[in-house]
Write a structure and sequence with these properties.
alpha/beta; six-stranded mixed beta sheet; five-stranded mixed beta sheet; 12 helices; 11 strands; 16% strand; binds calcium ion
Length: 318
């Protein structure tokens, strides 16, 4: 590469937001180090250039060069983006990465990105999330009827079909809403982030597994022209930096969640228990319908659903 370049990256994460903003910072750091300073990333937190969920449109239009965020926030732009972050009872982190790299996921993501002038790259994964914090016990699927539950994405649609009153409340307001009973239950991320928010002080029961987000993907999307204008070595560096960021993030989440789970159990006496098998079976029956309904919204979504579910059925047997 000749000459120094800077790409402006907008993110959905407030500065210092544990693990998520850290991942965006890794991407910034690795890119600069690997290119010996020839390519730097100028990271902008929400509000510094655009709002947290305005990053997709900002990069699509060229207002910013790239973003770090999660695809499922942009199902309004295209419903098929739901498949690229988290599918209820879908792939784990490992399986989703395999689908992208060896099962046709990346090509389909690129094809979808063409519509919006975006080149997408996997750039993070939360690993399996927690099932959520509940003020009351869950003993049957009927207990979801009327339950005021915060859950975004396809998982929320699933609980809605089971009769829950599904809300989408920003992370920063969760503790208060759960503590004062505005909601009866919430999912957030996993032990590390949940402990940081003090959710164990607002609700007694923590259920697992996180069936709604078995391995949520974070994505780095680059404006197509900005990416194409990079010389090949810098394109390769951006791709490699995203891959290392992905690996780092899932390892960091796993390690931090492991320690935080023990803190919740041993120091705070949190009641951490599995959802009854009958409840999981009831949720799964509805979840499969919800995932296939998204595939019926248009031809592109149908092809992505077909690819995802075919890959997942095969890898599941292995
Ligand atoms: Ca979550």
């Amino acid at each position: 590469a000749t000459g120094k370049r800077t790409l402006t990256m907008v993110t959905s994460w407030p500065r210092g937001f544990a693990v998520l903003d850290d991942a965006a910072s890794y991407l910034e750091k690795f890119t600069s180090e690997m290119s010996d300073g020839n390519l730097t990333i100028d990271k902008k937190a929400p509000g510094e250039l655009v709002g947290a969920l305005e990053v997709f449109d900002a990069v699509s239009s060229g207002q910013a060069d790239m973003y770090h965020s999660a695809d499922y926030y942009y199902i309004g732009q295209h419903p098929a983006y739901a498949y690229f972050t988290a599918v209820p009872f879908g792939g784990t982190a490992h399986e989703v990465i395999d689908w992208y790299e060896h099962g046709g996921g990346q090509q389909l993501h690129d094809e979808l990105g063409e519509i919006f002038n975006l080149k997408g790259l996997l750039s993070g994964n939360s690993g399996s999330q927690s099932g959520g914090w509940f003020r009351n016990e869950i003993n049957s699927a009927a207990d979801f009827n009327g339950l005021k539950f915060r859950m975004p994405g396809l998982g929320g649609k699933v609980l809605g079909k089971l009769g829950a009153s599904v809300q989408n409340i920003p992370g920063g307001e969760l503790f208060q809403a759960l503590n004062d009973g505005t909601i009866d239950a919430t999912e957030w991320v996993g032990p590390y982030n949940d402990l940081a928010f003090g959710l164990h002080k607002a609700a007694k029961y923590c259920y697992y597994p996180g069936w709604h987000e078995p391995g949520s993907v974070l994505e780095c999307m680059v404006n197509k022209q900005a990416f194409d204008e990079l010389p090949e070595d810098l394109q390769a560096i951006v791709e490699a930096a995203c891959r290392v960021t992905s690996q780092n993030m899932v390892a960091e989440f796993t390690a931090r969640n492991d320690r935080a789970l023990q803190t919740l159990r041993n120091e705070h006496g949190a009641d951490i228990r599995p959802l009854p098998v009958e409840v999981l079976e009831a949720i799964k029956g509805v979840a499969d319908t919800v995932a296939s309904e998204v595939g019926q919204t248009n031809a592109m979504a149908g092809r992505i659903f077909e690819s995802y579910s075919t890959y997942r059925d095969g890898v599941d047997q292995w």
